[in-house]
């Protein structure tokens, strides 16, 4: 039975449907073929992939094993290093302790060692090592006594030396055994002896009171074993003062300045970088500036002062200027000047101090806590310019720089009290001395005494009755009173120098000039001197101290006539 379709089939559509189905069949066949090929390739390559992953895993395991072995070896090496390092530290510590113990034992044995001091051929006394510096004066007196007694007929002198030796030995024994017999070999006799020496050393005030320090007497540099050590100021030439802070260096310098000014009437020029500090050298000796003999120089005027001293040295050596009064040049903190441009000029002046300044009556004091060359711009020769030394408590290495004999530096260890020092001068062995203690009141006492003596001298000059000049009958005119006073003043001040200028002298001369010239004013004198009127007024009213430059200016302004008279003479 034939089916009847409700629509008619287009022959063109049938062909398209057949084409599409053919394409789908071909696509399925191609897809199936691709799947088969992929499966074949996978089956062919899978065993190789398995073998490659196994090799990688084996390599990783070997790497891990090597890392573990390396860590184990490193730990073993570190353990060995720690072990041997610990042994080295312990060994070094034990060796250091052993060396320290040996050193302490050696020092104690050496300190406790006893030497024999032979006296002549029959007698001998034991002396401890630490007491050798103090027994030296006794041994020296013994030797001198034996020489005097055997080599000459000076029995009286030998007897006196022997008596002095006995007294020194008695003081020595008394100082060591003052408290208990068993302290003779203890650690305290050095301090006891030092305190005993310090207690027996008189103060500056006591020396002034009993006349030990007085005009015209030698310079007392201290006491060694109770005996005064005196020297002439000009024999010191150049004195190096060393010591730690607090060792008495400033007090000793002030004592030497005051003693020199009072005993020799020298003019002292002080350079102090710390002059504004209340505990400085300048503050201690400032009362002495009223005498007109002590001049605290402004540090900025240092080059001018050095050149002036050099010129005065040349003039004195050439005979153009008298060697009196003496000049004292003092520098505190000498190492501070090494940074100044004038330091080389200062060194050249100090080099001349060792040879020429004694003839010119010029002395130098230089104070510094350290004398190493690096503090003086490498100029180690500055130490060679020092003829005398006053070494307070300091390092033995610093003492070794100033003392020629390296054994003498051990004397520094025996300095126990402030003011104790090693004194070394020409033609005398180094001695441990105790310098008298001075305070500001002593400076005021010196200033007062010098001012009183100056007033007495002035009264002797100006109050002396002057013989009136008789006017001859043929004289055309009579000499006025002002002219006579001017001539008498020129005669009285004929030996005056700029460094002699004091405020009282300036006021006195200004009053004389005012009497001669009623129209003269302070402003005019200040203008002549190159000073401001206010500064000159303060100087006259003693509200401002005189400087070296102001002394020179006022000398030229107030005493010009006298200077011309002296040059004419």
From TrEMBL:
Gene3D superfamilies: lambda repressor-like DNA-binding domains (1.10.260.40), P-loop containing nucleotide triphosphate hydrolases (3.40.50.300). It comes from the Bacteria. SUPFAM superfamilies: lambda repressor-like DNA-binding domains, P-loop containing nucleoside triphosphate hydrolases. Residues 516-565 form the HTH cro/C1-type domain. InterPro entries: AAA_22, Cro/C1-type_HTH, Lambda_DNA-bd_dom_sf, P-loop_NTPase. One of its GO terms (molecular function) is ATP hydrolysis activity. The chain crosses the membrane at residues 26-46, 81-105. Keywords: Membrane, Transmembrane, Transmembrane helix. Coiled coil: none annotated. This is HTH cro/C1-type domain-containing protein. It comes from Candidatus Moduliflexus flocculans.
């Amino acid at each position: 039975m034939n089916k009847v379709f409700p629509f008619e089939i287009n022959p063109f559509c049938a062909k398209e449907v057949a084409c599409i189905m053919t394409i789908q069949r071909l696509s399925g066949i191609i897809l199936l073929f691709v799947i088969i090929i992929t499966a074949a390739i996978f089956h062919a390559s899978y065993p190789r992939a398995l073998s490659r992953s196994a090799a990688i895993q084996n390599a990783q395991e070997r790497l891990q094993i090597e890392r573990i072995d390396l860590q184990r070896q490193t730990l073993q090496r570190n353990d060995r290093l720690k072990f041997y390092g610990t042994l080295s530290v312990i060994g070094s510590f034990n060796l250091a302790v052993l060396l320290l113990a040996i050193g302490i034992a050696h020092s104690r044995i050496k300190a406790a060692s006893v030497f024999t001091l032979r006296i002549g051929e029959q007698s001998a006394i034991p002396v401890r090592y630490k007491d050798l510096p103090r027994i030296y004066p006794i041994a020296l007196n013994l030797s001198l006594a034996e020489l005097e007694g055997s080599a000459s007929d000076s029995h009286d002198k030998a007897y006196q030396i022997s008596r002095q030796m006995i007294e020194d030995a008695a003081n020595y024994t008394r100082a060591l055994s003052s408290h208990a017999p068993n302290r003779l070999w203890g650690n305290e006799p050095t301090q006891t002896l030092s305190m005993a020496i310090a207690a027996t050393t008189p103060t500056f005030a006591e020396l002034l009171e009993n006349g030990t320090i007085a005009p015209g007497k030698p310079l007392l540099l201290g006491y060694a074993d109770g005996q005064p050590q005196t020297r002439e100021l000009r024999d010191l030439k150049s004195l190096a003062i060393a010591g730690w802070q607090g060792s008495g260096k400033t007090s000793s310098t002030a004592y030497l300045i005051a003693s020199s000014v009072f005993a020799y009437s020298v003019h002292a020029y002080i350079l102090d970088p710390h002059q504004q500090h209340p505990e400085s050298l300048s503050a201690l000796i400032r009362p002495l500036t009223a005498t007109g003999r002590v001049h605290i120089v402004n540090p900025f005027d240092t080059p001018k002062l050095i050149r002036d001293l050099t010129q005065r040295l040349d003039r004195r050596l050439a005979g153009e200027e008298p060697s009196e009064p003496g000049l004292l040049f003092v520098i505190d903190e000498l190492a501070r000047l090494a940074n100044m441009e004038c330091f080389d000029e200062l060194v050249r002046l100090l080099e001349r101090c060792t040879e020429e300044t004694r003839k010119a009556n010029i002395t130098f004091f230089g104070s510094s806590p350290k004398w190493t060359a690096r503090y003086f711009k490498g100029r180690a020769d500055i130490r060679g310019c020092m003829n005398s030394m006053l070494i307070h408590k300091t390092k033995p290495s610093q003492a070794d720089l100033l003392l020629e004999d390296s054994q003498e530096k051990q004397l520094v260890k025996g300095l126990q009290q402030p003011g104790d020092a090693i004194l070394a001068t020409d033609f005398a062995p180094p001695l441990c001395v105790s310098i008298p203690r001075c305070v500001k009141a002593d400076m005021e006492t010196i200033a007062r005494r010098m001012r009183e003596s100056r007033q007495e001298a002035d009264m002797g000059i100006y109050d002396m009755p002057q013989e009136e000049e008789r006017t001859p009958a043929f004289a055309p005119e009579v000499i006025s009173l002002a002219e006579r006073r001017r001539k008498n003043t020129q005669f009285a001040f004929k030996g005056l120098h700029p460094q002699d200028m004091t405020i009282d002298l300036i006021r006195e001369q200004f009053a004389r000039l005012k009497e001669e010239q009623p129209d003269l004013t302070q402003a005019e004198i200040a203008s002549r001197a190159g000073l401001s009127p206010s500064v000159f007024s303060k100087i006259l009213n003693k509200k401002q101290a005189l400087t070296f430059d102001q002394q020179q200016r006022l000398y030229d302004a107030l005493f010009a006539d006298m200077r011309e008279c002296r040059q004419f003479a």
